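Fig. S4 source data, part A: sequence.
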Amino acid sequence: MIDDDEVTGYLNKIGARIVKQLPPSSLRFQFLLIDLPETNAFSLAGGRVYVSRKLVAFAQSEDELAGVIAHEIGHIIARQGSIDMTRWFREVLGVTQVGDRRDIFEKYNQIVDNQARKPKAFERGDSHGEKEQVVADQIGLFAMASAGYNPQASARMWDRIAETKGKTGGFFSDLFGTTKPEAKRLREMLRGLAALPPSCVETRVVTPAEDYQRWQAAVINYTGLGRKEVLHAVLSKTVLNPPLRGEITHLRFSPDGKYVLAQDDSGINVLSREPFAPLFRIEAPEAQPAQFTPDSQDILVSNAALRVEVWSIADQKLKSAREMTVRTGCLQSLLSPDGKTMACLDSDLALVLFDVASGAQVFQKKSFYVPDIFEIFLLRLFAALESGEASDLAFDWLNMGFSPDGRYFATGGRSTYFNAIGDLSTGTTAMAIDLTTRQPVNLRGPLKKLIAGGFAFLGPDRLIGVDRMDPKKSAIVSFPGGDVLDQVPLGHVKLTAAGHGNYVLIRPIAQYPVGVMDLKTKLISKANKQSALDVYDQFFASERTNGELGLYSIEKTDPIATVLLPRNPLGRLRVIALSPDLKWLAVSERTRGAVWNLNRGERVFHVRGFRGGYFGEDGRLHADFPKFEATERTMVQMDLASRQAMAGPEIKEDRASQHGPFVLVTKPAKKEGGFYENVIIEVHDARSLNLIWSKPFPKEAPRVWLGSHDATMVLSWPVSAGFAKNEIKRDPALSRRLVEMREKEGDYFLQVLDPRSGELLGRLLIETGKGSFRIESVFAVGDSVVISDSENRVLIYSLATGEQKGKVFGARAALSNASGLLCVENEPGQLALYDVASMEKRDEFVFSSPVSLARFSKDGKSLFVLTANQTAYVLDVASRARRVSSQ
C-alpha cells in the first residue's frame, strides 16, 4: 500500500464525495492506493476499496476513476462480498454464525485450508457473476451521478479497459451464446444510462481537469516505499560502511559517447565520460536493461509490469512516467530506443505493439509463436521451482530488437507446429515491422533464419545474426534488403551491438561471460570476466573486481580512469550470516561479499561472492567460495582479529551446499544414479568438511531444509510417497493421525532431525486440505515447527503433539524459543511481533526500506534487523516477551 497522505488524499476526496450520496450505514469506507502490476480495483466487505496506481494512470479523467470507485462501492452496498463469504462459511465449513475478531480470523483461515476440498463452492456461474457486476454498475451509476460526476464516463472507461470496442452483442449473438460477458456488461451499462434523467447525464465539472491531471502525474511519478519510518526501542543503528556494492548487470555508453549508465539489481548510476564521474542515481529495482534515447538527452527505464520512465540527464530527475496496460499481460516485452513503442509477447502468444504515449495497440499478430518442447519444460520448471535462485534462470521466449533509430522492430525464434501429416515439428518464426507504416517488412535472403537464431542491429540499416543450423554461415546482412555483407562464424551465442564502433558483444565466449569481436578482423579483441561491458570506438567500460567502474582503452589492460559508484541498496542476496552476539555481519551477492564489525561500523573483509557462511566460536567466518578461474571450490576461513583469509578444504561434491556450520551433500547411492530416489544424504562440518553423519534413503529422496542458525533439519515427503507410508505405519500415533485426516492428496510427512548427530527429534503430518496450500519453507525451534506457505501465511505446529499452535499472515519468519516471540514481515519494511503462546500481536516496527534479515538474539531480548539500504538495527524487545529465560 502507498500510505502517503500527500498522494492518497485526492483519492479519499473522490471516495468521500460518492459515499455522501449513499443511505446512512455503519460502514467505515476506506480508499487505499496500492502498487500492483494490474489495471484493477477491488473491494472487501466492510468498506475497503483498493485502487491500483496503474488504474489511476489508465483513467483519463476524474469522472472515469470515480466511476470505478462507485462500482466498487456498489459491490459493498449490495453486500455481495459478505454474501459470498457467508455462503463459503456455510457450504465449506458448515458455519452459520461467528463470534469475535479472533473467531473470524480462525474461520477465515479454515476457508483457506479447505478451498481445494470443495472447489465448486468457490465457483460462481457466469450468470451469477455477471448479475453481481450489473447490480454494482447500477448502484455506481446512481451514486456518481448524484455526486455530480458524468456517469457516461463509466461506460467509456469499461469499453477501453475491456477492449470491447463498443460492441454490445444482440439477439442473435445472445441466442447462439457468442456474446462476450464484457459486451453484455457494456450493454447493461448503456441501458442504465438511458434510464437516467437527462439532467443526471449532463456533463458537470466537479473539479478542474488540470487538478486531476496533476494528482494523476503525482501518483504515476511516486517512487517512495509507500510509508514513513516508525521505530522505537532502538538500541543501536549502524550504517554499513563502506557498503556492499551490487554487481553491475548492464553497462551502456550514450550514442554521443558523453555518458555511461551502470545498472545493478536495485537501480541505475548515470556517469559522465569526461571526467569519468557519477552524476546521479535512479532507483529502479527489477528494471529491465535501461537505454539512452538516440539524441543522448534522456534515459529510458521500463520493467516487466510495463511501467516506462523517462529521466532527463540535464535535469537529473524524472521527466515523465507511463503505466501501460496490457489486458492479457506480457510474457516478454521490449521498449524501443526512442521510447515510443512497446513490443509485447502476450499470454496468448500474440505479438503486439503499443504506442507508449497513448497506450493504444498499433499492431497485432495473433498466434505468432508457439514455444518448443524445451521452452514448455522451462515454463513448467519456473512454475514448480521454489528456490530463491529462480531469477538466475530467466530466459527470453523470443529474440527481440529495435533498430537504433527506432524505425524497425524485428523478432523471431524457434516455434513448434504441426506439419502436413499431423506430426509435431519444430521450425523458425520471424517477423519485422516498419514502425513508420506499422506494416510487416518482407524478410529477404537469410533474414528470417538469422532473426530467429539470434540477432542484433548494428545500425539502422544492417544487423548481425546467428544461423542456428550452420553457425559458420552466420552473417552481417543489410536491412531490410537482406543482402549478405559479410559472413561471421558464430556459435550458439547471444549478440549485443556495441555502443559505437565496428564491434559486437558475444555472450558467452569460451570460459568468459562476454567477449568483444572486431567485425573487421573477425577476431575476439577482448574477453572479460564480468558480463557487464560496453564499447565505444577505442574505449570500453567494465566493472573491476574491487567494485569500481573502470574506463579502458580497447588495446590496454590498465584503466584510463576508475570511479567508485555511490551507495546502492542491497539486491538479491545469496548469503546473510550474523554472529550469535550480533557483533559481526557477513553478506554476499552473486559476485561480491563483505564482512563488517557492527560495533565499530567498519568493513573488515571485501571479497568475491560466497555461497554460505557462519561465524564460528574460533573467531572466524567459515564461507563456501565457488570455483573461480584456477581456484577450486573451497571452504575459506576468515580470521576476524587478524583480518587474514586462509584456504580450507576443497568441496568436491556438486550437490553440496553450506548451511551455517554444516555442509549438506546429496548423492546417488549407486554409480550414475539419479537424485530423486535411492540417495545418500550427508552432513559435514563446514570447518573441516569432516563427515558428521550420513543416511541412505532407498526410496524417494526428501526435500531438505537445513536451518543455518536454528540447528535443525527438516525433511519432507508427500504423504503418498513410499518412504512416508512406511514411516507412518511404524508410528502408532502418526497412524492414528493419518486416519483422522481426510484426503491425503497434497499432505506432507515431515521429519525433524538434529543436524549435529542425525538424531530424529520428531515426526509430523501436515494436512493441506487436498493441496489448498503448499509448504514454501520450514524450520524448527524447540517444540515449534514454523512453516511459510503459498498463501502468504506463517503456520506454527507443535513437534510433540502435531497440533497447529497458531497462524499469522506474512513471511520471512523468525522465532525465539527463549522469549516466545515470533517476528513476521507483513509487507516490505513492516515487521510485526507476536506472542507464540497466544498469537497476540505485541508490537510493530516500520522501516523506510525493505527488510533483508530479521533475527532474534540468543536470549530473545533483542531483534536484529538489516534493511536493504544497508543499515543494521538492534531493537529492544525484552518488554514484549511473555517469558525470558535466565541464560
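Fig. S4 source data, part B ends here. The CA atoms of residues 662 and 685 lie 5 Å apart.
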